[in-house]
Write a structure and sequence with these properties.
The protein is an alpha/beta fold. The protein is built from 14 helices and 17 strands. The structure holds 6-O-phosphono-beta-D-glucopyranose.
Length: about 500
């Protein structure tokens, strides 16, 4: 497709969005996510002039460190992880408004100190500053943090006004239906739903947001977007990395909890939901929940496959198997790969399988949604001499973001030979490559109070409702039914069998 200049939206983002004066408080201030994503996101928002004039950053954590030490840690994080280089000018503007409060998460007195600290900021600035609490800690302390936000009065600060307190909650949002419900109960005990921003960082990805635009701003897709024309949909979320140093976490999680139940289901919801009545957050989230509710319960043998990576080669380098990784039990029953066949029982999708797969240590990192259309009637180009592919529209979510469509064409020449051809559009050539990271968009949206790209409580529960029986069945089965796949491959044989049973094959992304 034609190359165009950089999109004007990216030239001056500050024209488009404005947040009120805000103090962002990060719980888990010295954690990995804070360093890799949150601090760089704040920094890049500042560089794009998207932070409000009276912006403040407060780190909160158990470690006793000074304001200065926290600032140094933040500057190092920007140097290491930001998409832009550290500029003293941009960082200086944030650094002078960056402070740190030390305290335990279950220490009510420490939260009172935090409340005083925020009050002092408001007084210094001379106006009411919106508090945005970002809970980026291990899930074991979500509940005490929420309870102390309630007890200290912080949760209700400025409630009734647009700049009321807001709370962002990182994943994992529970580990099954019961724990997600329990967490929702704790949340609703101290906050109103409109104050809560449950993160799924996939929703912050440009290409994921583009799904809505592609589907609903192009009239050519909608008439085809149903069981009459679509044969199956394949969603692949493949990673090249293994569990690395996260063995302890991963053993309790596995591919289903870590990737499928949240990120992959968001891709399903946005691909399959009905057109919302408006772009309003609730209109979109209502449609997503309706879609999730239409998914049929999973059959633990015919609808799913799971496996662990064995040793293998990735990019010419030998990699160990999952059971050899640090922190992994030698008889571990945790899956590093899961494949699922979803049946959506509604007017649009009945009979169209949605295949999902996600795994660590696969051939390469790629996330894509491939919509495979039905074949045309086989009267003309059906014989053996014709190379005809299924028309496939694929959204490449990452990396090398873009969209492609596989068509069939005639090879130039004096005989009639056919060949599949690919039409594609790449973000890097159309928009340039330095697009904002997911967390920039999400932090900004939470500051603005736009919940569209966050998960509503009922949405999280509906997804857990689908997967909890399967998790229970797997926990009971231990290693029974667990397949293996070599590191660096496209997955196990049982996942091939899952799609072949329906006459399909996994597409090679
Ligand atoms: C996280 C998972 O939520 O998403 C990780 O816990 C995974 O295991 C990561 O690697 C993938 O995110 P992305 O944005 O790199 O696809």
């Amino acid at each position: 497709m034609a190359e165009t200049t950089r999109h004007p939206f990216l030239e001056d983002l500050s024209k488009y969005r404005g947040a009120p004066p805000t103090t962002v408080v990060i719980f888990g201030a010295s954690g990995d996510l804070t360093k890799r994503k949150l601090i760089p996101a704040v920094y890049n928002l500042a560089a794009d002039n998207l932070l409000p004039p009276d912006f403040h950053l407060v780190g909160y954590g158990r470690k006793e460190i000074s304001d200065e030490a926290f600032r140094e840690m933040a500057a190092d994080a920007i140097k290491e992880f930001s998409r832009r280089e550290l500029s003293d000018d941009v960082w200086g503007r944030i650094a002078e408004r960056t402070t740190y409060v030390a305290g335990a998460y279950d220490d009510a007195a420490a939260f009172d100190r935090l409340a005083e600290h925020l009050q002092e900021i408001d007084e210094k600035v001379g106006r009411e500053v919106q508090p945005l609490f970002y809970i980026s800690t291990p899930p074991s302390v979500f509940a005490p943090i929420l309870e102390n936000l309630g007890a200290s009065g912080l949760a209700r600060k400025y409630l009734g006004q647009p700049h009321h307190a807001k709370v962002v909650i990182e994943k994992p949002f529970g580990h099954d239906l019961a724990s997600a419900r329990e967490l929702n109960r704790t949340i609703t005990g101290v906050l109103e739903e409109h104050q809560v921003y449950r993160i799924d960082h996939y929703l912050g990805k440009e290409t994921v947001q583009d799904l809505l635009v592609q589907r609903f701003a192009n009239s050519i897709f909608e008439p085809l977007w149903n069981r009459n024309f679509i044969d199956n949909v394949q969603i692949t979320v493949a990673e090249e990395v293994g569990v690395g140093a996260r063995g302890g976490y991963y053993e309790q999680s596995g591919a289903l909890r870590d990737m499928i139940q949240n990120h992959t289901m968001q891709l399903v919801a946005l691909t399959a939901m009905e057109p919302p009545g408006s772009l309003d957050a609730e209109a979109i989230r209502d449609e997503k929940v309706k879609l999730l509710r239409a998914i049929q319960p999973l059959h633990p043998t015919t609808d799913v496959a799971r496996a662990q990576y064995a040793d293998g080669m990735i990019a010419g380098k030998p990699e160990p198997g999952y059971l050899e990784e640090a922190g992994i039990a030698e008889d571990s029953g945790t899956e590093t790969y899961a494949a699922i066949k979803l049946s959506i029982n509604n007017w649009r999708w009945q009979g169209v399988p949605f295949y999902l797969r996600s795994g660590k240590r696969m051939a390469r990192r790629v996330t894509e949604i491939a919509v495979q259309f039905k074949r045309p009637p086989g009267t003309l180009f059906a014989g053996g001499g014709f190379d005809i592919a299924t028309n496939t529209l694929s959204f490449q979510i990452q990396p090398d973001e873009g969209l492609s469509l596989i068509l069939n064409g005639k090879v130039p020449g004096l005989e009639t030979r056919t060949q599949p051809v690919k039409m594609s559009f790449r973000y890097s050539t159309t928009y340039g490559s330095n697009t904002p990271e997911a967390y920039e968009r999400l932090v900004l949206d939470a500051m603005i109070g736009d919940g569209t790209l966050f998960i509503r409580g009922d949405e999280a529960e509906t997804s857990w409702q689908l997967y909890t029986p399967l998790l229970q069945a797997w926990a009971k089965a231990k290693r029974e039914g667990m397949d293996r796949y070599p590191a660096g491959s496209w997955g196990p044989a049982n996942a091939e069998a899952l799609v072949e049973a329906n006459g399909h094959r996994w597409r090679q992304p």
